[in-house]
Structures are given as structure tokens and as C-alpha cells.
UniProtKB/TrEMBL annotation:
The lineage of its organism: Bacteria, Bacillati, Actinomycetota, Actinomycetes, Kitasatosporales. Gene3D superfamilies: Leucine-rich Repeat Variant. It comes from Streptomyces boetiae. This is HEAT repeat domain-containing protein.
Length: 478
């Protein structure tokens, strides 16, 4: 009935590897029941070959670290991966980021081998900044001080090296190591160099605030539209649609409406995009025809801008048009269906269900447009959507979307507390574990045991622990 996942690097959802790659709770439980060698091999494959669709949005590191600890798995494969010669050629964060995050969590659990690997990689590896950030929140002052010579050796004592050091200090995610090194009285040369870098970094930020780029006082509508188009024509291209729309909000008056309408209808791409967004934000009565024309334009940048402008609207007229456009098989139709799902009423449930079924059938269980439709199915309590929601939950490779689906099932599926909610207690996403803690039926002995372990785990997130303690407290008083 439904399309299957298209990602060739994600194993089927019915396999141990596929479950672990998705970060599902069932993967954790199956790994504990499987032969240890098979479970460790699948776990290592996931950590060394990051399976996430969006590594900046989805979580896996705590999930995998907990499983490493539960299985008593060694870290030899992780060490070999970090120090492989490929590390010098592939310096992208995606190659080692997940492994370093797993080591960070294992360090927090007291694993000295993980701490040693992080220290060594920070001193020698290409993705040393990530390792240093992990150490910044977990290592002691003495351990961090010992890393200073190796880290600073990356920055030669030249004008270029000093500039690179200033940028590294200024842009660091965790400033603690740099400040420790700048206060180290036993290394006066290091201390002086880092004090200068910290000072230059503060000065750079101050200069940015004093000289912000962009429109200047006295600009009018034409100047702002020209500025937006100039950025579009730069190499590399600078897309200034949002900034230009904000500027138009400050400079445009009633007498500029005709010029804005003309730009939105026939202007060059960036100017047209900025004008469309400005008019959409003010719910101009003519903007819907302009959006529809833009969405049908042959220029993909104009089409994207038109859809984006419409998706930001919240006026009553926008919802009426969304109901009319939701059946369109293009991106404007997807944006319209998402608007109905997010702002519609109970009477819109059939429309949301139809869009949800179409998205899964045409684009599969990882379709980009699924998230608002899944949320809408839960918000409107579309019980007829339960079969497709269960399918998305099982098959999607996005743990973020699976969490949204779990929340929708909690609102629509009477079987959720005794079904998926139980495995969600072991899910990789904290929001999904929180949903499970609120809904999982405690008649299952595994649920009570898991709730107690989550309550006692210092690495667990506050929201999850609050929900867990509420359930345990209610069970005790009950």
C-alpha cells in the first residue's frame, strides 16, 4: 500500500541493523537479545557510518553510548576509525562527529578509555574542535591544561597562524579550554598569546556590530529591491530575500504598493522574492494570485520564494486558499496541505488524511512534507490516519519524524500505551522518550524498570526525568 524507504544505505526496518540505524527502542531491545558479537558489529557499523539523514537535528550519540555500556563493547573499532589515514583526507565533521559524541557520553559514564581516546584525538585528529568541545564539558582542568601545547602547535607563530587562532578562539562552541589556557601561569608565552587572541576576538565582534552590512538610512523601496538583486547576482550567490523583506517593512508606504506589486509579478528573481514576501506578510489582497503565478513560474528560485512566502502567512484568507490548493501535486500543494494541518479545523481532517496518504504513497516514509501532516493528524485527532502513522513510525529513517509520529499516535491510537509507547522508552530522541514516559502502560514490568533507570541516569534530559518521576510518583501514590 505504501512506498518503502529509498535510502540504499539504511537497512530494512525489520533487521537489527535497520532498527539501530533508525534509533528505535526496539533496536536497543533486540540488540540485548541478539548474540553479543552480532549486536556489537551492528552497533559499531552505526557509530562508524553515521546513519542520520540530518546529523545536526537527529540524536543518536546517547542511545549508542548507553548500548555500548550495556553490551560492555570495546572501543577498538572506534579508535581505528578515528586514527585511520582517511582522517587526514576527509576532514568533514560528519565522518567522526558521531563517534566523538559517543565517546563524550561514555566519558560522562566514567569510561577512562573513552576519555583517553578523546584526548588523543583532540591532540592529533583533524576534527579536533569537536573532540575539544566534548572534553570541555567533561574533562578536568588538569587534563585540559595538558592539551594546550598540542592544540596551539596547530597555529604557527605567523600573522596567518595568529589570525587562525583568533578565529578558533572567537568561534569556539565551548570556551572553557581556551580560558583555562589563557590563565596558565606556568606557560607565560602561551598565556600572553591566548590573551591577545581573546582580546582580538572580542574586538572583531565589536567591529561587526559597529559596521553591519546591508541597507542604509534613507534607502527607499527601489534601493532595497536593487540590493536584494545585487546579492543574487554575486558569486557566490547571496540570497537576501528575508532581509530585504524586513527592510521593505520599514521603508515602504501606501504609495509604494504599485511598485511592489509590479516587482512581485515581473521583477528579477531576488527582487520578486522580496516583494512577494513583503506583500504576503501584510496579507495584501492581490498576493494570492501573485503567489500562484510565482509557484508556476519556470524559474525554480521564484517558485521556491512564492511557496515560502505563502507558507509564512496566517491570515484567514490564506487558510481558505490553502484548502483550495491542498490537492495540487506540487510544492504549493504541499505547503497548502501543511497550512491546513497546522491551522485547520476538525472539518479539515479528511483533507489532511488525503494529503498524508498521498505524500507517503508518492514520496515514501521519509518525505520532507510529512512532518506537518503527521503533526496535523495528531492535532486534529484523525483516527483514520492510524494505519499510515504506524507505517511511518516503523519505516522512516528520521528519528525526528518518528518522534512526531509517536506524539500523533498518542493522540489517535488507543493501542499506543501498550504498543509503541513501550519501545519509545528506549528511543534515541529525548522528546520521544518523554512522550513514552507520559503514556506507556505500567502493567508491563519492563516499563517500571526502565522508568526507574531513566530517573536515576544523570545523562537523561530534564524533561524526560520530570515526566518519569511524575509517572513513578503517581504509581506509588496510586
Amino acid at each position: 500500500m505504501f512506498a518503502s524507504p529509498t535510502e540504499t544505505d539504511i537497512a530494512p526496518s525489520g533487521t537489527l541493523l535497520g532498527l539501530l540505524q533508525r534509533g528505535r527502542g526496539d533496536g536497543w531491545l533486540h540488540a540485548l537479545a541478539a548474540p553479543r558479537a552480532e549486536a556489537v558489529a551492528a552497533l559499531e557499523h552505526c557509530v562508524l557510518h553515521d546513519p542520520r539523514r540530518d546529523w545536526q537535528l537527529e540524536h543518536r550519540s546517547l542511545y549508542y553510548a548507553r548500548l555500548y555500556a550495556e553490551l560492555g563493547a570495546g572501543l577498538g573499532a572506534v579508535a581505528a576509525h578515528l586514527h585511520d589515514p582517511e582522517d587526514a583526507r576527509r576532514t568533514d565533521e560528519e565522518r567522526t562527529g558521531l563517534a566523538l559524541s559517543v565517546l563524550g557520553h561514555l566519558t560522562a559514564y566514567g569510561n577512562r578509555r573513552a576519555l583517553s581516546l578523546l584526548r588523543r584525538y583532540a591532540a592529533e585528529g583533524s576534527n579536533w574542535r569537536w573532540a575539544l568541545d566534548e572534553l570541555a564539558v567533561r574533562d578536568d582542568d588538569a587534563g585540559l591544561r595538558a592539551l594546550a601545547p598540542a592544540i596551539l602547535a596547530r597555529f604557527p607563530a605567523t600573522p596567518e597562524g595568529d589570525a587562525a587562532l583568533t578565529a578558533a578562539v572567537r568561534d569556539s562552541f565551548e570556551p572553557r579550554p581556551w580560558r583555562i589556557w589563557a590563565r596558565d601561569s606556568r606557560r607565560p608565552a602561551q598565556r600572553a598569546r591566548l590573551e591577545r587572541a581573546l582580546e582580538r576576538g572580542d574586538f572583531d565582534r565589536w567591529q561587526r556590530q559597529l559596521r553591519p552590512p546591508g541597507p542604509q538610512p534613507g534607502w527607499g523601496v527601489r534601493a532595497v529591491l536593487d540590493w536584494a538583486q545585487q546579492g543574487y547576482e554575486h558569486t557566490p550567490r547571496q540570497w537576501r530575500e528575508a532581509a530585504a523583506a524586513r527592510c521593505l517593512g520599514a521603508v515602504a508606504g501606501p504609495g509604494d504598493r504599485d511598485e511592489l506589486l509590479a516587482a512581485a509579478a515581473q521583477g528579477p528573481p531576488a527582487a520578486r522574492a522580496a516583494a512577494l514576501r513583503h506583500l504576503a506578510e501584510r496579507a495584501d489582497p492581490e498576493v494570492f494570485a501573485l503567489i500562484e503565478a510565482g509557484a508556476d513560474a519556470p524559474d525554480p528560485d521564484v517558485a521556491t520564494a512564492a511557496v515560502t512566502a505563502f507558507s509564512r502567512m496566517r491570515a484567514r484568507g490564506a487558510l481558505d486558499h490553502a484548502r483550495h490548493w491542498a490537492a495540487r501535486p506540487d510544492r504549493l500543494g504541499s505547503a497548502a496541505a501543511a497550512m491546513v494541518a497546522g491551522c485547520g479545523e476538525r472539518a479539515d481532517a479528511p483533507l489532511v488524511l488525503s494529503a498524508l496518504l498521498r505524500a507517503v504513497r508518492v514520496h515514501g516514509s521519509d518525505a520532507r512534507e510529512l512532518r506537518p501532516l503527521v503533526e496535523g493528524a495528531g492535532r486534529l485527532a484523525v483516527t483514520a490516519a492510524v494505519p499510515v502513522l504506524r507505517h511511518v513510525y516503523r519505516e522512516t529513517s528520521s528519528s525526528h519524524l518518528r518522534g512526531d509520529t509517536a506524539r500523533a499516535l498518542a493522540a489517535t491510537d488507543p493501542a499506543f500505551p501498550t504498543g509503541f509507547a513501550i519501545e519509545c522508552l528506549w528511543d534515541c530522541e529525548e522528546d520521544t522518550r518523554e512522550v513514552a514516559a507520559l503514556h506507556a502502560a505500567t502493567v508491563d514490568k519492563r516499563v517500571v524498570e526502565r522508568l526507574r533507570r531513566l530517573a536515576a541516569d544523570p545523562a537523561e534530559q530534564a524533561g524526560v526525568q520530570t515526566a518519569v518521576r511524575g509517572r513513578l510518583g503517581g504509581r506509588a501514590t496510586g
